[in-house]
């Protein structure tokens, strides 16, 4: 199975490294000419994953057409750009493994739903979980959810990508795997705010638990299975991104919690903090589904410039309720 990777950011590059195990040939499409040049000439992605020596069997290209000979494509462009990138190429029946985490603005579609609308004949899988790119690229032990309705394709992908230090756990719940990854980014911003505003570890743990309740309410309303949400792509990834400044979303939240504006924090970013784009769409999707998501509303208020103290007061003043989802 020859693997192609769409997206030369940190995660696309780390996944290319996973797929290149045993010197298997991997073709990676990157948007930036300097990323293509740096991977091909020096086996390093200096722009997005600096300092990690890459397998020489990874070749980079700036032309999406070159991916035509691949047997499966890992789609690792940021969620808001997946539609445009897939629309530029002929996907046909090549399986697409969605690895971006988000919900499309405007349509409120999950990335897999976007892919289906652009490439209706392509089988869909989702790879998601607690996976900081630099750790995966360094070969540190990592486990992910690999969700696909087609059991045969799921097995072939797991066999192709799996390794002792990269363990795909099988699931048929594509929607559940996607919802966990999209929602946790918004909740990670909230946890960063708790850190930045110095609210303490009790508050952070409470936010993770109540945020998870929020993720579960939304996920169940959208057809996710509860066990997917409690798995690697849901709770697992939530815990990871809510606990470390290695997370871009958590770091964005730290800045907001310190009273800096979203405009300032996002203005000169080269890397993506998906939660900032997902938050407003998630607010709309939650309203549409009739699901209460107070943490998501708070993150939106902060991104729109509401004062930190005011937003925290509003959250803490909510009427007490039963704990059950
Ligand atoms: N970095 C990580 O540890 C992980 C990232 N992800 C997800 O992977 C996806 C990609 O993130 P990263 O690889 O981290 O990106 P990154 O933050 O390292 O780099 C930004 C990426 O965005 C691309 N980009 C910017 N504007 C674009 C446009 N107009 N059209 C197409 N692409 C454009 C750049 O080419 C680059 O590949 C995101 O959805 C992220 O949530 C998932 C798991 C881990
Ligand atoms: O999704 C991730 C880890 O699983 C990466 O998180 P950030 O995008 O917040 O850095």
Binned strand content = 5-15%
Structural classification: alpha/beta
* Uncertain parts: none
The mean pLDDT is 97
Instruction: Give the CA-CA distance, first to last residue.
Output: 42 Å
Q: Name the overall outline.
A: globular
For this structure, the CATH topology of the largest domain is: Rossmann fold
Biggest sheet character: 8 strands, mixed
CATH class of the largest domain: Alpha Beta
Helix content percent band: 40-55%
Major sheet: arrangement of strands: 3-2-1-4-5-6-7-8
| Rg value | 19 Å
CATH architecture classification name of the largest domain: 3-Layer(aba) Sandwich
- Please count the beta strands (DSSP E, at least 2 residues each): 8
Q: Are any ligands bound, and if so which?
A: 1,4-dihydronicotinamide adenine dinucleotide, 1,3-dihydroxyacetonephosphate
Q: Quickly count the domains.
A: 2
- Note the run of SSEs as H and E: EHEHEEHEHEHEHEHHHHHHHHH
Assign the CATH superfamily of the largest domain: NAD(P)-binding Rossmann-like Domain
Keywords, separated by commas or semicolons:
N-(1-d-carboxylethyl)-l-norvaline Dehydrogenase, domain 2, 2 domains, eight-stranded mixed β-sheet, 15 helices, 8 strands, 49% helix, binds 1,4-dihydronicotinamide adenine dinucleotide, binds 1,3-dihydroxyacetonephosphate, NAD binding, G3P_DH_NAD-dep_N
Outline the secondary-structure elements.
Elements: E1 3-6, H1 10-19, E2 26-29, H2 33-42, E3 58-61, E4 72-75, H3 82-87, E5 96-98, H4 111-118, E6 124-128, H5 133-137, E7 142-148, H6 151-161, E8 166-171, H7 174-196, H8 201-221, H9 226-229, H10 232-241, H11 248-257, H12 262-267, H13 274-289, H14 294-303, H15 308-316
Parallel strand pairs: 1-2, 1-4, 2-3, 4-5, 5-6, 7-8
Antiparallel strand pairs: 6-7
The structure holds 1,4-dihydronicotinamide adenine dinucleotide and 1,3-dihydroxyacetonephosphate.
1,4-dihydronicotinamide adenine dinucleotide binds next to helix 1.
Family: Belongs to the NAD-dependent glycerol-3-phosphate dehydrogenase family.
GO molecular function: glycerol-3-phosphate dehydrogenase [NAD(P)+] activity; NAD binding
Keywords: Cytoplasm, Lipid biosynthesis, Lipid metabolism, NAD, NADP, Nucleotide-binding, Oxidoreductase, Phospholipid biosynthesis, Phospholipid metabolism
């Amino acid at each position: 199975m020859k693997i192609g990777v769409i997206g030369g950011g940190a995660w696309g590059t780390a996944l290319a490294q996973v797929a290149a195990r045993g010197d298997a040939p991997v073709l990676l499409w990157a948007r930036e000419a300097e990323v293509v040049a740096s991977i091909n000439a020096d086996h390093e992605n200096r722009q997005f994953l600096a300092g990690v020596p890459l397998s020489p069997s990874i070749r980079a290209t700036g032309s999406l057409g070159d991916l035509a000979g691949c047997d499966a494509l890992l789609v690792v462009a940021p969620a808001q750009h997946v539609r445009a990138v897939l629309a530029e190429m002929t996907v046909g029946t090549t399986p697409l493994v969605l690895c971006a985490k988000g919900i499309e603005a405007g349509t409120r579609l999950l990335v897999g739903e976007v892919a289906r609308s652009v490439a209706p004949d392509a089988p869909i899988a989702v790879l998601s979980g607690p996976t900081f790119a630099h750790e995966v690229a360094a070969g540190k032990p990592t486990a992910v959810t690999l969700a696909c309705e087609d059991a045969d394709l799921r097995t072939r992908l797991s066999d192709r990508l799996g390794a002792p230090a990269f363990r795909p756990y099988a699931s048929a719940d594509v929607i559940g795997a996607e919802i966990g990854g999209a929602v946790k980014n918004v909740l990670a911003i909230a946890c960063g705010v708790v850190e930045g505003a110095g609210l303490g570890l009790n508050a952070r743990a409470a936010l993770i638990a109540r945020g998870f309740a929020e993720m579960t309410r939304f996920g169940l309303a959208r057809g996710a299975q509860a066990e997917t949400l409690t798995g690697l792509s849901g709770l697992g990834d939530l815990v990871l991104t809510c606990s470390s400044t290695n997370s871009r979303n958590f770091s964005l939240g730290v800045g907001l919690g310190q009273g800096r504006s979203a405009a300032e924090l996002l203005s000169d970013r080269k890397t993506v903090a998906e939660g900032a784009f997902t938050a407003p769409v998630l607010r709309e999707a939650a309203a549409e589904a009739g699901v209460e998501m107070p943490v998501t509303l708070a993150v939106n208020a902060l991104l729109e410039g509401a004062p930190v103290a005011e937003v925290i007061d509003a959250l803490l003043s909510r009427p007490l309720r039963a704990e059950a989802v």
